[in-house]
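Support case: user asked for a sample of complex input and structure output to validate their parser. Sending the pair below.
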Amino acid sequence: MSREVDNALRRLEASQEIYDNYVETAENVEKLYKTYEEFHNLLKGQETEVIEVSEFLSADPRYYNIPADYRVLSNAIDVYNRKPIYLSKHEPPGTTIVLLNALYHIFNNWGDWRECNIIIGTDASYRPHGRVEKINDHTFLIILGRYLVSDTFILSAAIYELIFDIRSESQAEISFVEAFSEQNFEKVLPKSVHAFQLPYMIAQILSGDRLRIGARFRDETLQKKLQYAISLQTTMIVFLISHELAHIYFDHFDRDDPNAEIFEHFIRGMMSDDTFYADYEGELNHYFSKVFPRHSSEISADLEALRVAGNVGVDLFNNKYPGLAGAFIFLQLISALDKLNFYRAYGTDVFEHIDKFSFNRNLLAADIIVPFRNHPWGRTRVTIVSNIYKAYPIWQGGPQRSEDAQTFEVNTLQNVISGAHFLIDYNLQGALDVLARVLSRGGEISVHLTGDLTRIMHYASKDSESFVYTCPTVRLLSGSWCYYGRFSDVYGEGSPI
Ligand SMILES: [Zn+2]
């Protein structure tokens, strides 16, 4: 390992230590890190068998909820031993497995990046949800939001249950893509338990350790269909990591984005009848000359990441559209998290600064009135990326039209995009309400969402030590997932709100 790789790793580990010491006692941090290190050593062993990793994970209730089957664990061992990847020794087993499995699929589809040293890890920050730093010409540090990596699993499981509902209600055999449309979700979601759960699932990604939920899934999902949910989550994380790799691929550190001109032309075309702006030319010229060069890089990275997610969809589902669905759900999620994050940072809903209609309908409105420096608002990003992708369904580092397939491609993509939009948007106000409750209290909250629409909340006071990890985490016989412990033993009965 070179000195530079080593230094970058130490920096990542130091930032993880600060957070872990914040939520944990020093003694517990030490214990955790010891287990993490054993886990990494096991995964990296040349002779390690899947069964050993599986036994390691099942020996500790904390790891019962890690979404991993034989295939995922085998991919993780394989890629960790084959490629120049460096993980922090403080990376928890759950995110380690998710990251390595996604990298395995990315390398299978996008060359093996052998000439690059990739240092990768998660920390507790959300914004930016992911970032990449150039350490030297062939060494890069990628840091991703920890809860974005871990909590997308229960989101995927919930979405997959909705797809089962749609399939079981329909008379004919319907494919994933046919099921995955706004109209179908509109029929099943409002009467499903997931209308109650999804707002919590979205809010907890932003809240991190402040809000942990246990959500109930059906036995059928837990026993037989888990692989689908794991695969859908994999496409989301593939999208997240590929976005960062695309910044390396385009060398966005040292060069302007090669697609900026195409995008500017395209976006101006999308805005040609927009009457929202007071000084249309002035505001737009300012945006395109001063802000857009950065934003253009983000759009290029998203398009490249979509291409990879579609290819991984073919590996996992024999069809690129489930891969694209995962990527578009993820983009919609980023858009939702931007809005929640604005609330967390400024204490107001962004709709108080810019009305809902303009925010949703006027492209760039949010970026001009309440701009973020590095990334476009998620809402703008998803609109631009969706439209460009529909115009150029085959994107290979730049625009390529596929004339023959175009009508089919565009219709199918439209289905996927509107389904992803509905799934997240329908739950966004609920997620904002949940976040507002979390922020109005000190300390951490654990919520158990049952299958019969009741909710049990447990609060820990701000100064109670080691809330998350010292509570016994169990996988309930009823099939609940994630961090649900017998908190009443420790903190007394929680008061429902
Ligand atoms: Zn980016």
